[in-house]
Design brief:
The protein has 236 residues and is α/β, with parallel strands linked by helices. It has helices spanning 50-58, 91-95, 107-116, 132-146, 162-177, 189-195, 213-218, 223-235, and strands spanning 11-21, 24-35, 39-43, 65-70, 77-80, 150-154, 181-185, 198-203, 206-212.
Length: 236
């Protein structure tokens, strides 16, 4: 792994991380410092461990060994997974589920967020009948209401049309403007270049390379990253 000596105002530090599933090692990270003060993209091949990485940073899963620490002890994260089920209720009722964990969220705030994500006109529509993009916006709306320091997004625009992708990307930018830092996974390299300031490249459960977006794309330092970029750019 390269670029291990960077300094960040806020960061996540991983030490001696091992995450296993059914005896198979999913993540193996001896030491890494990940910035939590900018939009960061986590990229890599399918099955590399990216979703597990997000769950680990969120605290949704615990490592078999090792520690994850945040420079900001008061960190509050919100994880939006690629497939988030909807209850059979209205769109507004689905987004209002966040009040179960935070009763201080007022009804007026829910209405403001419904407007912000462009779904006010569908507030009373059954959530499970919404399009994939509309359901994704609902999930992002829940995250907005939680006012997290750190937003973790797993493939936030997978299988969405270009127009909806653009709308979701704008919501992601708004997180940053409103003071929330973002780590997202994506296979869309053009999207990564549009949104991210920093790259974490994971391959076979290991962080093989990390650093600013520009140098990563123009001059990757590892063979694994060079191979991945070549394959993905050909696929595009």
């Amino acid at each position: 792994m390269v670029n291990s000596s960077e300094q960040f105002k806020q960061f996540i530090e991983l030490k001696d991380i091992i995450v296993k599933n059914d005896g198979r090692i999913i993540l193996d990270i001896p030491h890494a410092i990940i910035p939590a003060d900018r939009i960061c993209a986590c990229i890599g091949p399918n099955g590399a461990g990216k979703t597990t990485f997000l769950k680990l940073v969120d605290g949704l899963i615990k490592p078999n060994s090792g520690t994850v620490t945040h420079s900001n002890r008061a960190i509050k994260s919100s994880l939006v997974l690629h497939h988030t089920p909807m209850i059979k209720a209205s769109a507004r009722a689905n987004i209002a589920m966040v009040t179960d964990s935070d009763p201080s969220i007022h009804s007026s705030a829910i209405d403001v967020v419904m407007e912000q994500i462009g779904l006010s006109h569908l507030a009373n529509s059954p959530a499970h009948k919404l399009s994939a993009g509309e359901r994704q916006k609902l999930c992002l709306g829940r995250a907005i209401l939680q006012k997290p320091n750190l937003v973790l997004l797993d493939e936030p625009t997978a299988n969405l049309d270009p127009n909806t992708t653009e709308q979701v990307e704008e919501i992601i930018r708004q997180f940053k403007l409103e003071g929330s830092d973002v780590i997202f996974t994506s296979h869309q390299l053009a999207q990564v270049q549009r949104l991210a300031e920093y790259i974490v490249f994971i391959d076979q459960g290991q962080i093989k390379e990390k650093g600013p977006v520009g140098p990563f794309f123009t001059n990757p330092q590892t063979q694994a990253a060079k191979r991945y970029l070549h394959q993905e750019l050909l696929a595009d």
